[in-house]
């Protein structure tokens, strides 16, 4: 049974079920547009996922059939009603960038489960996740240029690195909407599922990841992030530096034993 964590806020619930933490944006009356309460909750959730050894995967989703319609500038300019959230907003340096997955990301996989609108800041959040499950009928897009704004969540940098340049520029410079099917063809998202099924499928993927060796999964993520942009020789040196300790771990021995004994491995992250 999922446990509601005390770092949850009025606009962001954080629940843990075994090795998986699910973070849900909850402002359905505003299509889950970003607020201070939401960003503080997400910033604390990412830190919790990163710091908690037993947690292996995070899922980001939105309540009531919507993902996130971007920033609500009015709501973000008002002080939160919750005293604890006000205190955390003051304590957390750049809590908005942390919440948006711009400046830091957990060293563990994040899966986005998207229904409805995931536009502007919603698409920027998507770009900070590692696996993206999107329901049919959802709407993606970076609308900032159309409104005379700028994608401050990092999309002007990230999007051209994640999909081909001309597709990225088509999305960024026109500010148009993108369908899930088009996003899949671009390689922007992982899979398209029937409406209402995004969270269920994301949890299936999360459970598959959680069943793998956590040291292996985290080392693969770390290798990708540290070697992005490097030439192959330099990247392989870093890959070896990260990879050999995984081979020497107790989990590696357990994985070999489990294969030999034809049973599921019991990984401990050691």
Descriptive report:
By secondary structure, the chain is an alpha/beta fold. The strands form two sheets. A seven-stranded mixed beta sheet has the order 1-2-3-4-5-7-10, with helices on both faces. It has a three-stranded mixed beta sheet with strand order 6-8-9. It contains twelve helices and ten strands. The chain is globular and about 55 Å long. The mean pLDDT is 96. Helix 1 packs across helix 3, helix 6 packs antiparallel against helix 7 and helix 10 runs antiparallel to helix 11. The protein folds into two domains: 208 residues, 2-enoyl-CoA Hydratase, Chain A, domain 1; 47 residues.
CATH class category label of the largest domain: Alpha Beta
Tally of alpha and pi helices: 12
How many domain units? 2
The 3D shape can be described as globular
Provide the CATH architecture of the largest domain. Alpha-Beta Complex
Question: Structural class of the helix and strand makeup?
Answer: alpha/beta
Tell me the distance between the termini.
26 Å
CATH fold description of the largest domain:
2-enoyl-CoA Hydratase, Chain A, domain 1
Rg of Cα set: 19 Å
Low-confidence stretches: none
Q: Mind summarizing the main beta sheet?
A: 7 strands, mixed
Mean pLDDT: 96
Query: Percent of residues in beta strands?
Result: 15-25%
Give the number of DSSP strands.
10
CATH superfamily of the largest domain: 2-enoyl-CoA Hydratase, Chain A, domain 1
Give helix and strand order, one letter per element, not per position.
EEEHEHHHEEHEEHHEHEHHHH
Biggest sheet: strand arrangement: 1-2-3-4-5-7-10
